[in-house]
Specification:
Layout lengths: L7 H16 L2 H7 L5 H7 L1 H27 L4 H29 L6 H8 L18 H21 L4 H24 L12 H4 L1 H13 L5 H8 L2 H11 L1 H4 L5 H25 L4 H6 L2 H8 L1 H11 L16 H26 L6 H11 L11
C-alpha cells in the first residue's frame, strides 16, 4: 500500500475550482453566451466537483481504514471520530459562528431555522423554503458526516469476516440509491426538499469510492485488479463514462437526473483508481504541479470560505448586507483561505497523528498536505 498518494490533491483542486466558478456564475454566463451547452456544463460544474470530493473521500478514508486494520488487527472508531472532528469541526464551527454574528448584526443574511439545520449537520434535509445561500454548501459536509457515522462500524463488522459481503453491501447501496431517489421523487417530496442531497441517496457516491478502495486492496485479487485499473483503457473508459452527458442524449428524467450522474460518478472512481495505480504517469505528475497541489491542500478551507464570501450564487437578496459583491468576495477568498489553512487549520491537523497508527499517520499527512512531524523522544 502506498505511503504517499500523488495526484489526489490535484483532483481536489479541480473539484473546488469547479465549485467556486459555479458559484461565481462563470459557467452559467458562458452557457448564456453560447460558449458552453448544458450537456458539457454538467461535466465541469459544482455538482461534478462535489461528486469528485465524495468519491475521493470514500476511496481515501477506506484506504486508511484498511491500512489501520492490517497494521493493528482492528479499527478504533473512537480515534476515527477524533480524527474527523479535528479535520472538520474547527473550521466548520468557526464558519457557523461567523454567519451567526452576521445574522445578529446584519439583515437578510440567513434565518435561525436555517442556522439550526447547519449546526445540527442536517442541511441536506432542509426544506426548500428554509434554505439560505450562505449556508447552502454545508449540505455536502452533512452527507459525509452521516456516512462516516456508520461506515467505520460497518467496515469493522464485515471487513475481517468477509470482504465479499462488505463489497456486496456497498454494491446494493450504490444500485439501490438511484431507485430510492426515483421512488421519493414520485412520492412528491421533491416539491419541498432537495431529495437528491439526502444522505442515503447522495452518499452512494462516497460508497463508490469505498468500493473501489476495497477492490484494489483485495488480498486475493489485488494484483489483477490493480493491473486492470492501471491500463490506459481504464483511463479511456473513465473519460467516456464521465463525459456521458455529451454523447448520450435522452429525454428521460431518470437518465438526465439520476443515471447520467451515476455514470459520471463511476467514471470519477475509475479515474481515481487509475491515478492511484499510475503514480509516475505524466498525468498524475501534472496533478502534482505546485499550484494544483497547494489548492488541493487548502481545498476544504476554500470550500467553506467560498460559501461565506460568495454564497451559492451571484444573486443577492434585496437589501442583503452579506455576502459582499462577487469580485470582492473572490478577493477575500483568495486571501483568507490560504491564511486560514496555515494559521488556523494546520495546528488541528497536526494533532491527528496522535490518533493514528504510524503507517496511517504517514499516509494522512502526505495525502492532506501536512508536513511530516519530527518524531518525539522515545517514539
Amino acid at each position: 500500500m502506498l505511503n504517499k498518494i500523488s495526484g489526489f490533491d490535484g483532483i481536489r483542486a479541480l473539484a473546488v475550482i469547479a465549485v467556486v466558478l459555479t458559484h461565481l456564475h462563470v459557467f452559467e454566463a458562458a452557457r448564456e453566451a453560447g460558449w458552453l451547452n448544458a450537456q458539457a456544463l454538467k461535466m465541469i460544474d459544482g455538482a461534478a466537483g462535489v461528486q469528485a470530493f465524495f468519491v475521493l473521500s470514500g476511496f481515501l478514508i477506506t484506504t486508511l481504514l484498511i491500512r489501520e486494520y492490517e497494521e493493528t488487527g482492528t479499527i478504533s472508531i473512537f480515534a476515527f471520530v477524533i480524527r474527523r472532528t479535528l479535520r472538520i469541526f474547527p473550521l466548520y464551527i468557526a464558519f457557523l459562528l461567523a454567519i451567526t454574528v452576521l445574522h445578529v448584526f446584519g439583515r437578510s443574511v440567513t434565518t435561525w431555522d436555517s442556522l439550526l439545520y447547519a449546526y445540527l449537520y442536517a442541511y441536506n434535509f432542509i426544506p426548500i423554503d428554509t434554505y439560505t445561500p450562505v449556508l447552502g454548501h454545508t449540505w455536502s459536509l452533512a452527507v459525509e458526516e452521516h456516512f462516516y457515522l456508520l461506515w467505520p462500524a460497518v467496515f469493522l463488522l464485515l471487513f475481517a469476516r468477509s470482504r465479499g459481503i462488505l463489497s456486496l453491501t456497498l454494491v446494493a447501496f450504490i444500485i439501490g440509491a438511484p431507485f430510492l431517489h426515483l421512488l421519493i421523487i414520485k412520492s412528491g417530496f421533491a416539491a419541498d426538499y432537495f431529495v437528491e442531497r439526502w444522505s442515503f441517496i447522495a452518499g452512494s457516491a462516497i460508497a463508490v469510492g469505498c468500493l473501489f478502495s476495497i477492490l484494489l486492496h483485495n488480498n486475493r485479487a489485488a494484483d489483477k485488479l490493480q493491473n486492470f485499473a492501471s491500463k490506459p483503457l481504464t483511463l479511456v473508459t473513465a473519460i467516456i463514462l464521465f463525459s456521458n452527458s455529451i454523447y448520450l442524449a435522452s429525454d428521460s428524467w431518470f437518465f438526465q437526473n439520476i443515471l447520467s450522474n451515476q455514470l459520471r460518478i463511476l467514471g470519477l472512481a475509475l479515474f481515481v483508481a487509475w491515478t492511484y495505480t499510475n503514480q509516475s504517469s505524466r498525468l498524475t505528475q501534472l496533478l502534482e504541479t505546485r499550484p494544483l497541489k497547494h489548492i488541493g491542500a487548502i481545498s476544504y478551507g476554500i470550500y467553506m470560505y467560498q460559501g461565506f464570501f460568495l454564497a451559492t450564487g451571484p444573486h443577492r437578496a434585496p437589501h442583503a448586507t452579506w455576502p459582499p459583491p462577487p469580485e470582492l468576495g473572490l478577493l477575500c477568498l483568495l486571501v483568507i483561505a490560504p491564511a486560514s489553512y496555515h494559521f488556523f487549520e494546520k495546528p488541528f491537523l497536526r494533532l491527528k497523528h496522535r490518533y493514528s497508527s504510524p503507517g496511517r499517520a504517514a499516509l494522512e499527512r502526505t495525502s492532506a498536505g501536512v508536513p511530516k512531524l519530527p518524531a518525539r523522544a522515545g517514539e
